[in-house]
Write a structure and sequence with these properties.
Elements (H helix, E strand, L loop, with lengths): L2 E2 L7 E4 L40 E7 L8 E3 L2 E8 L2 E8 L5 E8 L22 E3 L2 E5 L5 E5 L5 E5 L15 E3 L2 E6 L6 E6 L5 E5 L10 E5 L2 E7 L3 E6 L5 E6 L12 E3 L2 E5 L5 E9 L2 E10 L10 E3 L2 E6 L5 E6 L5 E4 L8 E5 L4 E5 L3 E5 L10 E4 L10 E3 L2 E5 L3 E6 L2
Antiparallel strand pairs: 1-11, 2-7, 3-34, 4-5, 5-6, 6-7, 8-9, 9-10, 10-11, 12-13, 13-14, 14-15, 16-17, 17-18, 18-19, 20-21, 21-22, 22-23, 24-25, 25-26, 26-27, 28-29, 29-30, 30-31, 32-33, 33-34
């Protein structure tokens, strides 16, 4: 894999207006997939004393199709979407929705009409990542790109694989210091690759398995910083600095997929997949050799397209069984605390504000649900979109940004 310097084919850069400044990623409300820590937790949410009957719509603008979550850094929103055969990176004013800059490149995609993802469109599905003044994206065709966040200038871009994974690409970049890490590759061929953030040069890669549809994360076990992710058949841990495989464990059988980002709770890794239940395990090192130790397995529920959150030792999520069941598991023991009857949602994106779970269903309904070990009892329901909502809601203060099929809307609380 090589980097292609300069402009991409069909590149268009338009500077529209000066916008608000940027701030460091560790101070940004939403700099990457699933929020500041890649776990769905946001601490900047300010719940009102009295919830209104309806949210207030401040603005709504068309931005293009796709399911990538917008980023919120300082006063800017960064949106990665598709417009008329191009993948575009947009910078918008968070207060008005006005465009600051727009960068686009030609990105043709041919999807397998027999795959389940065909009806979901041409993407992109991978959420960008902001770090140290740069934006990193993975396009639907497998191209990894870096942009200057202040101006939108394309800094580098990789050559896409010749063949796409069966379900397209849906893995969001992870930035670790001077490396941007993403799972690349085509059908039955994949690699976890670390690119240099400044140049796009490959620093290391692990390529012993096929493509992934979930996103990796960073974890430190026994003083070793590791990239933890799900490949086509395994859960793996590789050394973040070198890409050396430390441990792997079989997880997904053939013809089974997972779009899950692993969930960390201390030393425990929680993982799930299509009809695979939920597994908790711990990476351990004995005599200089790494292995994994299974802590518990719960087969009552399975997370397939919806990622869960952990609050006060409880894992909350949406199982794909019975056409969508909300659930709660004791994350220490794996015991099922409660499970709804089903037919609740096909997909849900969950934000944990500690006091409330904000559960965005794929039909545009937002549930405000207090976390409870006793049952699922939404306190408020709001309709926030008229089309499908697959992207994660972005929450900051009393602002909730919702990306639907083609648009982006700011809703506010009093």
């Amino acid at each position: 894999m090589r980097s292609r310097w300069g402009s991409a084919v069909g590149l268009a850069l338009v500077i529209v207006m000066a916008g608000p400044g940027l701030r460091a990623a560790d101070d940004a409300p939403w700099p990457q997939w699933r929020g500041p820590r890649r776990d769905g937790l946001v601490t900047s949410f300010a719940a009102p004393a009295v919830w209104p009957e309806q949210l207030t719509k401040r603005w709504s603008v068309p931005v293009g199709i796709g399911y990538a979550t917008p980023l919120l850094v300082g006063g800017r929103l960064f949106v990665f979407a598709r417009q008329q055969g191009e993948e575009v990176m947009l910078a918008l004013r968070a207060d008005t929705g006005a465009t600051i800059w727009r960068t686009a490149y030609t990105a043709p995609v041919t999807l397998n009409q027999r795959s389940g993802s065909f009806k979901h469109g041409e993407g992109p599905k991978s959420t960008p990542t902001y770090a140290d003044g740069r934006l990193f994206t993975m396009g639907m065709g497998g191209m990894v790109s870096a942009f200057d966040a202040a101006t939108g200038r394309l800094l580098w871009q990789t050559t896409p694989p010749a063949v796409l994974p069966l379900y397209g690409t849906a893995t969001s970049p992870l930035v670790d210091s001077r490396r941007v890490i993403v799972h690349t590759g085509g059908h039955n061929q994949g690699a976890l690759v670390a690119f240099d953030v400044a140049t796009g040069v490959v620093r290391w890669q692990w390529s012993e398995d096929g493509p992934a549809y979930g996103s990796p994360l960073l974890a430190t076990f026994d003083g070793v910083t590791q990239v933890v992710g799900v490949s086509q058949q395994f859960v793996v841990g590789v050394e973040a600095a070198t890409g050396t495989l430390l441990w792997k464990r079989p997880f997904l059988p053939p013809n089974t997929t997972s779009s899950q980002t692993p969930i960390l709770m201390g030393r425990t890794v929680l993982i799930s997949g299509q009809s695979m239940g939920v597994t908790a395990f711990a990476p351990v090192r004995r005599g200089g050799q790494w292995d994994t130790e299974t802590l518990w397995v719960n087969e009552d529920v399975s997370m397939y397209m919806s990622n869960g959150v952990v609050q006060d030792g409880v894992l909350y999520g949406l199982s794909h069984k019975n056409s969508g069941q909300w659930f709660a598991l004791d994350a220490t023991t794996g015991k099922t605390l409660w499970l709804t009857k089903g037919r609740d949602a096909g997909n849900a994106a969950i934000v944990n504000t500690r006091a409330f779970l904000l559960e965005l269903k794929d039909d545009g309904e937002l549930l405000v649900t207090p976390p409870s070990r006793e049952g699922h009892a939404p306190a408020h329901r709001y309709q926030v979109a008229d089309s499908a909502t697959w992207a994660q809601p972005v929450v900051d203060g009393r602002r909730i940004f919702i990306k639907d099929e083609n648009g982006l809307t700011l809703w506010t609380l009093p």
